[in-house]
Amino acid sequence: MFLVVGQGNPGPQYERTRHNAGFQVLDRLGLEFRKKRVASGHEALLAEAQGGLFVKPLTYYNTTGQVVGPLARFYKIPPERILVVHDEMDLPLGRLRLKAGGGLAGNRGLLSIAQALGSTGFHRLRLGIGKPPSPEEGARYVLSPFLPEELPVWERVLEAAREAVFCWVEEGFAPCANRFNALDLR
């Protein structure tokens, strides 16, 4: 069994924002999500497919671990069988990277997951959104929509990310990292 987690924030005001990259990718998978309450008492949108779970936590981005931890424990899913799809300011728009474990780069959602799992050994699909105009504008930047001129690139990223998720599920980390990490969709 595996777990694919899309990071994002619930509610229509966040749907098209940079911070909802994970939700946007899971929306492209063509799965039927249903609202469920997990062991922690928090809600999530879950879909079961291909022998695993796909989840959009409804706890808000920075507290994703409150859903991921209980699901991983209940289904006995080890960190290396978890893929977290999220936005990444350290990558330019048009790039995506698969990463296994390692640092969290100040991402509070990833920190929440690492604390809930007791491990940073989970896999990530990092979707480049570019940097804000200044470091002080980071929160406003991630909660803003893509600019009209960025949308064609973002659409290509979402399609590649959809393919990368299915690749990870079917083939595993290494073949997918080899195939997708070198892509430049700008």
Automatic annotation (TrEMBL):
Q: Which reaction does it catalyse?
A: an N-acyl-L-alpha-aminoacyl-tRNA + H2O = an N-acyl-L-amino acid + a tRNA + H(+)
Q: What is its EC number?
A: 3.1.1.29
An annotated Gene Ontology molecular function: peptidyl-tRNA hydrolase activity
Q: Does the keyword Cytoplasm apply?
A: yes
Keyword Heme assigned to the entry: answer is: no
Give the UniProt keywords, A-Z. Answer: Cytoplasm, Hydrolase, RNA-binding, tRNA-binding
Q: By its UniProt entry, which InterPro entries does this protein fall under? A: Pept_tRNA_hydro (IPR001328), Pept_tRNA_hydro_CS (IPR018171), Pept_tRNA_hydro_sf (IPR036416)
Q: Where does the protein principally reside?
A: cytoplasm
Query: Binding residues for tRNA, per the UniProt record?
Result: Y14, Y60, N62
Which Pfam families does UniProt cross-reference here?
Pept_tRNA_hydro
Give its localization: Cytoplasm
Q: Where is this site: Stabilizes the basic form of H active site to accept a proton?
A: D87
| Biological processes annotated in GO | protein quality control for misfolded or incompletely synthesized proteins; rescue of stalled ribosome
Q: Subunit notes for this chain?
A: Monomer.
- Similarity comment: family membership: Belongs to the PTH family.
Q: What does this protein do?
A: Hydrolyzes ribosome-free peptidyl-tRNAs (with 1 or more amino acids incorporated), which drop off the ribosome during protein synthesis, or as a result of ribosome stalling.
Q: Which HAMAP family does the entry mention?
A: Pept_tRNA_hydro_bact
> Under what name is this protein listed?
Peptidyl-tRNA hydrolase
Supply the source organism for this entry: Thermus filiformis
Q: What is the lineage of its organism?
A: Bacteria, Thermotogati, Deinococcota, Deinococci, Thermales
Gene giving rise to this polypeptide: pth
